[in-house]
Amino acid sequence: MVSKRDFLSITDFSPAETVQVIARARQMKAEGWGQPLAGKHIALLFEKPSLRTRVSFEVGIHQLGGFSVYLGQQEVGLGVREPVYDVARVLSGYVDGIVARVFSHQHLVELARHTTVPVINALSDLEHPCQTMADLLTISEHKGALEGLKLAFVGDGNNVARSLCLGAPAVGMSFAIASPAGYSLDADSLLQARQRNDSKSVQIHSMTDPHVAVRGAGVVYTDTWTSMGQEAEAEVRRRDFRGYTVDPALLSQAMPGALFMHDMPVHYGEEAPPGMLDHPQSVAFHQAHNRLHAQRAILEFILGQPTTLRQVRV
Ligand code: NVA
Predict the structure, then answer these.
(1) Which residue has its alpha carbon closest to ligand 1 atom 2?
(2) pLDDT tens track for 131-173
(3) Is the pTM for the entire model greater than 0.90?
């Protein structure tokens, strides 16, 4: 049986592979790309809304010569209308890969376990690894070397924060997160991040004070306080996250010229004030556009191998 590569967590790429995929994304951006997905079909299985992820994946798949089949919230009913196992077995017979955005990361793990084709995480409650790859690409384009930089994340210890925390040490970056009490990144993720790079110069810290977190940071990152699926908590979260808005005053406490990043969509007036994405130090739109460039390299890495010819028995 041919082994497959899934990309469910940013840690599914080794540090060397992370660097390699970012470098390849830059190369494809500069020199163009071939048709490594020629004749391949990829299912996009989305349980949550999407703008950037869906469009960038569909466009990227087509640019690489492949075809995409979009399955939206109403269609599959992963684990509700049909068990994940059955969906996995059925899709394996139709497509060469699955890009899935799900509520439960466990469903993604189950999907990957029971399909014979690679599965790419397009956001789960636990991680958003494709976003992190685009973010690292963006930082490398603006700052040159990634090694030695510090990324400060201000806000919820959520999926975006976790993938960044685990991705940063793979490329030699330090990571600090400031969250209100009760919203910190879990201790296991922090420990796992520390274990990804034992260099003394790579530090992984969690704290409550955003002013301390941004000190010495070359990148200041924030995300929504209320992720998809947590809408019922929005009011409580708005109260609990008061003081965690990344505004020009907080950004000015980071390194001079520090990048402001946000994965979008933005809840203006909450994690960022209106106009913040047009701040001279903001690279948020560039970051959004890099989803396409990073994902082309991810797709090529995971699915670009030659198609295995199935043996025909007569
Ligand atoms: N943390 C956000 C990211 C959106 C791209 C969410 O999960 O809704």
Answers:
(1) 227
(2) 999 999 999 999 999 999 999 999 999 999 999 999 999 999 9
(3) yes
Residue 145 CB contacts under 8 Å (≥ 6 apart), including other chains: none
- One CATH from 3.40.50.2300, 3.40.50.1370, 3.40.1010.20, 3.30.70.20 for 10-128+292-303: 3.40.50.1370
Size of the chain in residues = 314
Nearest-atom index, ligand 1, CA of 159? 1
- Is a pLDDT exceeding 80 seen at residue 77? no
As a whole number of angstroms, the distance between CA 69 and CA 275 comes to 36
* pLDDT tens digits along 200-221: 999 999 999 999 999 999 999 9
Q: Which residues line ligand 1 (CB under 6 A)?
A: 123, 158-160, 223-224, 227-228, 263
Domain ranges in the chain? 10-128+292-303, 131-288
Domain 131-288 has CATH 3.40.50.12710: no
Strands 119-121 and 97-101: parallel
Residue 194: the pLDDT is: 98
Closest ligand 1 atom number to CA of residue 156: 1
Which two structure tokens, joined as six digits, stand for 14? 């080794």
